[in-house]
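Hey,

The postdoc asked me to send both predictions to you directly instead of through the lab channel. I've kept everything plain text so nothing gets mangled by the mail client. Protein one:
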Amino acid sequence: MIEYVSRGHMRATTVFLARSKEAVETKNGSYRPFVPVEIKRAKPIAPGAGSYSYYARYSGKREDGSHGRIVKALGDNLEAAYVQFLNIDSAQKQIRAGHDAPAVIPSAVDKTSLSDAIQQYLEDCKSVGNAEDTIATKRRILESFETIAMKSGVISVAGLRDPKTGRKVLLDYLSWMKEKMPTVSIEGVGTRSENTRYKNMNKLGAFLKQQGIKAKKDYRAAPNDTGLLSHNEFPKYKNRKAVMYSEETITAWKAAATVDERDLIEFFLATGFRDGEVAHCEWSDINFQDKTINVHAKTKTSTRLWEWSPKDDESREEDIPLSDDFIQRMKDRRKRYAGQHCALIFPNAGCKPNDNLLRIARRAAKRAGITEYIGLHNIRKTFGSIIAEKYGAPYAMVVLGHSDLSTTQGYMAKNASTRQRMRNDLNS
């Protein structure tokens, strides 16, 4: 019999078991009605096909006053049974430590389980046009939140609606993020973990709002504000200093690139498009006659087996002007790949949107010996800063596809050449 094993690999006294409602016959003709329940990432895994009832086995005081093995029925719902199992296990650990057993508080009962609510929310996000990577991010956040909620005995939406319980779960989730969120990104560049917590809580707040739950109280909240966390308890976003690439960096980057890599680098720098916009951009998005470009939604057709919508489901308010050199480069690329008969400008080998475009651009930077971080936002900030310097921030807001000027202002990087020109002017 495999027992429940904690993270520290210490054998626990409490064992989580399942019993098939259909007797399972073994080779020697006997019956083995109990099977262990496997736990992965703090979640129980159903033993297999068929219907099961769940039990906790532990040593304790029986109803008749004697001590010995106890097998307690936990019901037929796996998630609900697991919550009860965790409560019993916690109580047993406290007893072994010499403390009184805490009262087991049953989780709130609701027709809508937290798991079902999360699944429905993700399906709704997909139906309104959220990108696959956005949905994947939301799924990771909500699944980690669900795990924390289950540890607190909450398996339903109703459990979160209780002010005390909901607040406790959110505070537990914040504590978990502070402990688990990395302070260094995959690329080795320092990140602000508080900004990650802020973004995660905002995404979680959107889910809770759909369930009729307010995550954060208003600033200077009224006494009847139903928000679970105070304004000060909610993570704060700390702005980073905008960084743009120097002319020397861009020149070295382009010089080390292959023809295809340079096409991509030039495209990023000429359009300021987001990664997903570049991946889904088609030749028809470029107006070769007017020398402009815009990003448009794509619907599924007989030749296009996918669909996609830009952020906020909107194209740019105005088309982005393109230089003669860039237009000629795109014409050369289209001619070079005419035999592929693919509508996408930068497809993968199967004529589908390429999810690794930034990685391709980084390869050229590595060959060029560029040590500074090559990231999509820094490319967009380089593009936006140049546009803002020449034509003003309001126009940069339009071509970057922002909905408000404050977002664009966060993209404005300090330009060394501008500072030098100011010094020259002051000293002239």
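Protein two:
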Amino acid sequence: MDIRTEELPGQITRVTLVGRLDSTGAVEIELPFNTAVTEKRAILVDLTSVVFLSSFGVRLLLVGAKMCAARGGKLVVLCPAGPVAKVLRIARFDAL
């Protein structure tokens, strides 16, 4: 699992995830991901290059969204496709 961050106009931080967001991948990126969501208020998580999403990955995203919201911020998920989008719908992540 790979994680990249970039600053966009409007004080938005884009967090791009690449690979499998399973238990191993979630552990690999947990610290830098949590750092980003606690330091920034507007987070855009790009899932375009995530090919697999497990419950560990969903948990990472949910905890990140809650951490961001607790500071008055917002976390938005961008471009989940195919099976990744289906997992997020089943987990009702789209209802947040």
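Summary for protein two, as requested: The CA atoms of residues 4 and 16 lie 5 Å apart.

Thanks,
C.
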